[in-house]
Amino acid sequence: MSYQAYLDTIKEKTGLSVGDFQKLADERGLLRPGVKAGEVVTWLKIDHGLGHGHAMAMYGTLRAIDAPKVTDQDRVDKHFSGKRSAWIPAYNKLLKQVQKFGTDVSTQVGNSYISLLRGGKKFAIVKVSAERLDVGIKLKGTDANERLTSAGTWNSMVTHRVIITRAAQIDRELVVWLRQAYAKV
Q1: From residue 97, how far is each of 40, 84, 91 by CA, in Å?
Q2: I want to staple 5 with a disulfide (CB 3.0 to 4.6 A). Which of 1, 78, 152, 176 is the partner?
Q3: How many CA atoms lie within 13 A of 58 on its CB side?
Q4: What is the DSSP-derived secondary structure letter of residue 162?
Q5: Tens digit of pLDDT for each residue in 29-56?
Q6: What pTM value is reported for the model?
Q7: Residue 116: other Cβ atoms inside 10 A
Q8: Fold that domain 72-184 belongs to in CATH
Q9: What residue spans of 67-116 are helical by DSSP H?
């Protein structure tokens, strides 16, 4: 069952919307900091007859309402925090080159890496560490070489990997490989 299906079923069963549950939980003090999930889930089970899965779905929804909203920039900043911040200029240089491929280039920031997309389809990824940028590229059918290595088990979302240890390695050769991946999507 999808998360939304849980919420739809709760509305059908109780006649109460998420907003209604938010108001009731707030009145009971269940939305204040430090309240454990078990307290809210028990209340939802006893007072509203929800099963455990439905109660957990509602608890998650209620907690998310007041949670601080995380922006894409916040997620990018997290990738470049601490010692990884030295890679911001190199990443910006790479992104500037990739954005020249077309207006359909975008990024999607995940927890482990930043995806480079063409029309919503991934053609490359960038993973940041203190020592380097790893650029994963989808280039099925392209032979690996000394610099454009096989991704192997590093990341199954791409076929090849380029390790960047100096900003100067974001060069014409890398951009050509990225453009080829962009064209193949």
Answers
A1: 50, 21, 10
A2: 1
A3: 34
A4: E
A5: 999 888 999 999 999 999 999 999 999 9
A6: 0.68
A7: 27
A8: Aspartate Aminotransferase, domain 1 (3.90.1150)
A9: 72-79, 88-99
**Nearest CA to 128 among 93, 85, 95, 162?**
85
Strand ordering across the sheet containing 133-137: 105-109, 114-118, 121-128, 133-137, 160-164, 149-150
Tokens of 171: 């060069």
What residue type is assigned to position 122 of the chain? K
Best mean pLDDT range from 1-10, 33-42, 73-82, 168-177: 168-177
Model pLDDT for residues 41-98, shown as the tens digit of each residue: 999 999 999 999 999 999 999 988 877 778 888 999 999 999 999 999 999 999 999 9
Sorted by where each begins, the domain ranges of the chain are 3-66, 72-184
Position 19 pLDDT exceeds 70 = yes
Tokens 């889930």, located at residue: 41
Q: Residue 48 is encoded by which pair of tokens?
A: 């509203």
DSSP 8-state code for residue 69: P
Q: Strand pairing of 114-118 and 105-109?
A: antiparallel
Residue 138: DSSP 8-state: -
Query: How is residue 28 written in tokens?
Result: 């009971």
Beta bridge partners of 125: 115, 136
